[in-house]
């Protein structure tokens, strides 16, 4: 099965021949079982109840409500990027950051090279994972559908761990191939990475996921703050997300 191969692919990437432990396997599951795909249950324990007791329409409404909460953080995150852009040392990168944020705010879906051109900015202050302001940490937590009711140092640590897991999963998924995933698995993978795939056709979801993987697999560990911000940069204006 696709997810079984993905699990072993991720193990190979980690350089281990040992069968992944149960909690690793659970994190790799893109909610294959059940009637719904939505965000993985380890993000929302209530998703277990939703999957078994809610109708398909109620499940979709549930996902839309949570994504509306997620989208409220998007303007805040983009505004923060614009605010700190003058602090970027290189003038060319500084201009590019401002230009990218302006385009996204005006409704343009960014090209992959435009995002990757900024990778250097996210590996050091002020946008490196260890240097992000507390307000940005909270906004990014909301964008990842994670609670913000924790001290800043714990939010930062959890975001770093969460982003690292997604990055490792991305590498394994790229090795396996998106074409090996079912439609439900693709939608779940997109939702986890910031795209509300509820009303988007399977082909469009696969295109978006391919863009995400291209960016993710190009990043080094020190640049994972960009992958975290990519939840907003890549999903805000994707076709079909504006209703």
TrEMBL record:
- Out of the domains of life, which is the source? Eukaryota
Any one Gene Ontology molecular-function term assigned to this protein's record: ribosome binding
Tell me a GO cellular component.
mitochondrial inner membrane
Question: Per the annotation, which location comes first and is thus the protein's main one?
Answer: mitochondrion
- Entry membrane topology: Single-pass membrane protein
Q: Which PROSITE patterns match?
A: LETM1_RBD (PS51758)
Provide the alphabetized UniProt keywords: Membrane, Mitochondrion, Mitochondrion inner membrane, Transmembrane, Transmembrane helix
Q: Which GO BP terms, alphabetically?
A: intracellular monoatomic cation homeostasis
Keyword flag Transmembrane = yes
Tell me if Transmembrane helix is a UniProt keyword of this record. Answer: yes
Where is the protein situated, by its record's location annotation? Mitochondrion inner membrane
**Where would I find the Letm1 RBD domain in this sequence?**
69-243
One of the Pfam families matching this protein, by short name: LETM1_RBD
Protein name as annotated = LETM1 domain containing 1
**Organism annotation:** Pipistrellus kuhlii
Q: What is the lineage of its organism?
A: Eukaryota, Metazoa, Chordata, Craniata, Vertebrata
